């Protein structure tokens, strides 16, 4: 199966224009507190100019589930990605009230027992070294997982091919790895999408 690619943390109009050129499977809008955070109004504007074939993921940390549902119902985002202490009940509430998928982020350490998440009501998991830390974790710690997952954490043009070969994730999630001086770099965005799709 072709590995999916998600470009996360777009926060300028030119990021959207570059995403339209690169044409990833997913883009991520960060609603949680972050230097990449955007507002609901900004997300709505960006959605209007984004290629309609690209799926929009909203990134949240311990947000009120009702707020997440509202963004999904309004069509500002297509999928919710949860990075906090959200419970299975929160995930079920969001899914049942929006009819849309949920991604649950998991911080992976050598002690993480990933098989416990196979029963999560989330549609996908996202494996990371921390909340947008931009650091690679030990991929050998990924075992016992049957649920489809996105691999995040320090992925860039140099290591993405290795990541796909070793880990074989459903999708790759990249943010800092497509930035230059903390701003999204159109050439890197296009480069990583091409590498994931054609290698």
Can you put this structure into words, describing what you see?
The chain is of the alpha/beta class and about 200 residues long. It has a single domain (about 5-199), classed as Aldolase class I (TIM Barrel), CATH 3.20.20. Helices cover about 30% and strands about 20% of the residues. It has 6 helices and 10 strands. It has helices at about 15-20, 40-50, 65-75, 90-100, 160-165, 185-199; strands spanning about 5-10, 25-30, 55-60, 80, 100-105, 125-130, 150, 170-175, 180, 185. It has an 8-stranded parallel β-barrel with strand order 1-2-3-4-5-6-7-8, surrounded by 4 helices. A two-stranded antiparallel ribbon has the order 9-10. Helix 3 (about 65-75) links the parallel strand 3 and strand 4. Helix 3 (about 65-75) packs parallel to helix 4 (about 90-100). The model has no long low-confidence stretch (mean pLDDT about 95).
In short:
This protein is of the alpha/beta class and 199 residues long. It has one domain (4-198): TIM Barrel.
What strand line-up does the widest sheet have?
1-2-3-4-5-6-7-8
The DSSP helix count reads 6
Percent helix: 25-40%
Structural class designation: alpha/beta
Q: What is the CATH class?
A: Alpha Beta
| Morphology | globular
Chain-averaged pLDDT: 95
Strand content: 15-25%
CATH superfamily: Aldolase class I
Report the biggest beta sheet as strand number plus sense, adding barrel if it closes.
8 strands, parallel, barrel
CATH-assigned fold name: TIM Barrel
Instruction: Give the name of the CATH architecture.
Output: Alpha-Beta Barrel
Low-confidence stretches: none
CA radius of gyration is: 16 Å
Number of domains: 1
Count the E strands. 10
- How far apart lie the N and C ends? 13 Å
Q: Helix-strand pattern, N to C?
A: EHEHEHEHEEEHEEEH
